[in-house]
Amino acid sequence: MERGELAAWLRLALTPDVGNLAARSLLAAFGLPEAIFRQSEEALQQVVTVAQAKALQREPAGLEALTDTTWQWLEEAQPFQSRCVLTLADARYPPGLLATEDPPPMLYAMGQLPDAWPVGIAIVGSRNPTPQGLTNARQFSRSLAQAGLTVVSGLALGVDGAAHEGALEGAGAGQLATIAVVGTGLDRVYPKRHLELAHRIALRGAIVSEYPLGTPPIAANFPRRNRIISALSQGTLVVEAALQSGSLITARMAAEQGREVFAIPGSIHSTQSRGCHLLLKQGAKLVESAQDVLEELPMPDGRKLTASRVAVKAQASDAQDEEPEDSLLAALGFDPVSLDALIARTGISAADLQARLLELELDGDVARLPGGLFQRVAAG
């Protein structure tokens, strides 16, 4: 892409009141952006509104500076980390996103950019998950990456971060492990505590955004980027979600785009499970293992993938030499429970119970939750 072409695409994307739908109509009518800006106002009004046509006649403020910044950012790409701007006219533009109703005119990308976009599975969920939710996200992602899928998520705290981590652990050499779709410009990382994770993703995966360089974390941008997460994936798995979670937006967009929607069930007492239960009531597929996802996920080439079983809950085993389950873990179950309730269930004194719970917590079998609650954590 030449610098003048980049400037024209930026101008189209930045022109006030000209959204993605109007931009596509203009491109269909006149061709590349440079041709659009050679049109008269009268010609433009044959395609867009009067207000939009007038806006297209004026150069957006800051266009030259942003063009300079973006051009320099592209020039600073390293051999181990590609950078590019994919436009609607680019053959490398993700076909799954192109087929949606609202594809962005420009998509910024950095990392290990594929010649052909891989088969992706979106894994999303709460920013404040339970310990079991974090474990599930990481283990499902690891297993699905081992099966050859690319895990797509949003780089947010909680489930998103765990999903990216699991994918980096499970992906093989040369595989595009994970794609992070962010709600800021690619010259910044949000949240900041994921800076190191973002660097690792750029080395073994890709980070993409529809927002120009310099875009700060604006609340409204994050729900909008969810349509890109779902569009880059064959299906969306919701690990944990409250009823007002942005993950439900991703799931709705996936369904509208004709993708599969999966949900992991949880405790009826956990607010972080209610969003998943709502999705299940609405027809999402209940999954207990990574293989459950793979069996339902439509593959473009018709092949079937397999994965090692990742169970949500501890599986009963009839192995004769297996150690018996710890009686306190059995009393805990998998729902959050208070110390008083455990005393009533077990008859153990408060002091002894606190000491035993601390041991289990240090072993990673129990998590301490806000409000003085405890929860058993099942390893996959």
Q: Give the spatial strand order of the biggest sheet.
A: 1-2-6-5-4-3-7-8-9
Mean pLDDT: 90
The end-to-end span amounts to 47 Å
- Our estimate of the beta-strand percent is 5-15%
Helix content: 40-55%
> How many individual helices?
17
Q: What CATH architecture of the largest domain do you see?
A: 3-Layer(aba) Sandwich
Low-confidence stretches: 311-324
Order of helices and strands: HHHHHHEHEEHEHEHEHEHEHEHHEHHEE
Which value, in Å, is the CA radius of gyration?
24 Å
CATH topology of the largest domain: Rossmann fold
Total number of distinct structural domains: 3
Describe it:
With 380 residues, the chain is of the alpha/beta class. The protein folds into three domains: 1-69; 120-296, Rossmann fold, CATH 3.40.50.450; 327-376, Winged helix-like DNA-binding domain superfamily/Winged helix DNA-binding domain (Arc Repressor Mutant, subunit A, Orthogonal Bundle), CATH 1.10.10.10. The protein is 41% helix and 13% strand. The protein contains 17 helices and twelve strands. Helix 9 (159-170) runs parallel beside helix 10. It is elongated. It starts with a helix and ends with a strand. Mean pLDDT is 90; it is low at 311-324.
